[in-house]
Amino acid sequence: MTAPTKFYAGFGLGLLSAFSVFYGLFFAQLGAPTLSSQWCWDLNSRKQELARAAGTPKLLLVGGSSVLFGLSARDIQQQTGFPTVNLGTHAALGAEYILRLARRSAQPGDIVLLAFEYEAYQHGAPGKPVPWTDPLYFDYLFARDAAYFRSWPLTEQLRAAMWISTRRLKEGWRNRGRGELEAHAGIYSVKMLNPYGDQTGARKDNRSPGQPWLALRSENLARGLPAEPNGFPVFREFIEWARQNQVRVLATYPTICHRPEYEAEPAQRTAAAIREFFESQGVPVLGEAREGMLDPDLFFDTLYHPIEEGARERTRRLLTHLAPLLQREGRTASAGTAGTAK
Predict the structure, then answer these.
(1) pTM of the model as a whole
(2) At what angle are helices 166-174 and 3-28 packed, to 10 degrees?
(3) Which residue, of 79, 83, 228, 246, is most buried by count of CB atoms within 10 Å of its CB?
C-alpha cells in the first residue's frame, strides 16, 4: 500500500470512528432532561391535563406564545359558557409539533382555533422543504420527546443530530438518569398558568425596561410570504386529520405588537394569503389581521407577548366573531343530548 493510499485509508477510518463516537454519544443521551426544556415541558404537560379534565365538547386555543400570552380562555368560557382551554405554548416548537400536541388533546366534537405566529407559515415538517430548525425545538425533542424523534427516518435523525452543540451534548450526558430538574422562577413558570391554561403575571409593573419589543417585527408579515409557503402543507395535514376525527377547525390571526409596516401592501398580501389558504380548506377565518395588532404599550417582553390587559382586549375583539358561533355549537350539543335522552 502506497503512502497516499495509507493516508486516505487512515483518514477515512478516523473520520468514520469520529462519527461513530459522536452519534453513539448523541443517541445515548436522548431522553435526558435539560433545564432549557423544563418550562416548555411543564407547560405542555399541564395543558394536556387541563384539556383532559375539560371533557368534550370544548374549545382548544392552539398556537405559540401569542396564544399563551395573547388570548384569554377564561374570558371566552366565562362569556360564552363554552369550556375552553388555552393550549398556547412555546412558538420555538414549530407548527408541526404544536399541532401534534393539539391532536393529543382534541376529541370528536371539539373545536380547535388556530392562531399561529406568522413565522409558522414559512416552515415545513421534518424531511420537507425548509423544515423547522429552531435549536430549542431540537433541545425539547432530544430531552422530552425522544420517542417521537426516533420515529423519524434515520436520515432525518442523523441530520438533526448535527444541530446539537458540544455544550448541549455534555448537558445531556450529565443529566442521564436524573428526574425532574429545578423549576423555573418568575413569570416563565408553570405555576403562572391559571385553571384555563392562560399565562398570568404579565403586567406593566414587572415588565423589562426599555421596551425591547419595539425593535422587533415579523419579517413574514412585513415583507410578505412566498407564493407557496412551506408551512401550508403542515396545516393542510392537520385539517384533514381533524375532518376525519370529527374535530372542527377555525382560524384567526395572532396577537402582535403593531408597527406601521403592517399597514403596507406586503402585509396585506400576507393576511390575504393566510385567509385564502384556510378558506380553501373549508376553515372559517375569524376577524381581520388588524384586530390582532395591539398598541405597543400593551406588550410585555416580545412582539407576541401582550400584558394581561392586551390579552383581554384581543379576546374581546375575537369574541365578536367567536361568541355567536360557540352559542350555536352549544345549542346543537344540547339538542343532541336531549335527543339522546329521549
Answers:
(1) 0.90
(2) 50
(3) 83
Residue 17 has pLDDT above 90, yes or no: no
Report d(CA 116, CA 247) in Å as an integer. Answer: 18
- What helix, strand, coil percent values describe the chain, rounded to 5? 60, 10, 35
- Cα–Cα distance for residue pair 340/248, rounded to 1 Å: 21
**What are 24-56's pLDDT values in tens digits?**
888 888 999 999 999 999 999 999 999 999 999
Residue whose grid cell is 380547535: 112
Least confident of 11-15, 87-91, 202-206, 271-275: 11-15
pLDDT higher than 60, residue 12: no
Q: What is the DSSP secondary-structure string of 215-282? A: G---HHHHH---SS-TTHHHHHHHHHHHHHTT-EEEEEPPPEE--GGGGSHHHHHHHHHHHHHHHHTT
% of the chain at pLDDT higher than 70: 88
Residues pairing with 59 in the sheet: 84, 111
Q: Are 248 and 340 in contact (CB under 8 A)?
A: no
Is residue 89 helix, strand or coil?
Answer: coil
Return the H-helix or E-strand segment holding 111.
strand 111-114
Are 176 and 28 spatial neighbours (Cβ–Cβ below 8 Å)? yes
| pLDDT category of residue 181 using cuts at 50, 70 and 90 | low
190: DSSP letter: G
pLDDT score recorded for residue 1: 56
Amino acid making up residue 342: K
Annotate 43-82 with b (16+ C-beta within 10 A) or e (fewer): bbeebbebbeebeebbbbbbbbbbbbbbbbbbbbbebbeb
Q: Domains, the chain, ranges and CATH?
A: 30-336 (3.40.50.1110)
Of the candidates 318, 274, 312, which has an alpha carbon nearest to the alpha carbon of residue 292? 318
**CA–CA distance, 242 with 278 (Å, rounded to integer):** 13
Sequence-ordered list of residues with C-beta below 8 angstroms from that of 319, at least 6 positions apart, any chain? 75, 76, 79, 80
Residue among 115, 102, 69, 67 at smallest CA distance from 88: 67
Distance of CA 326 to the CA centre of its chain: 24
Check residue 212 and give its pLDDT.
87
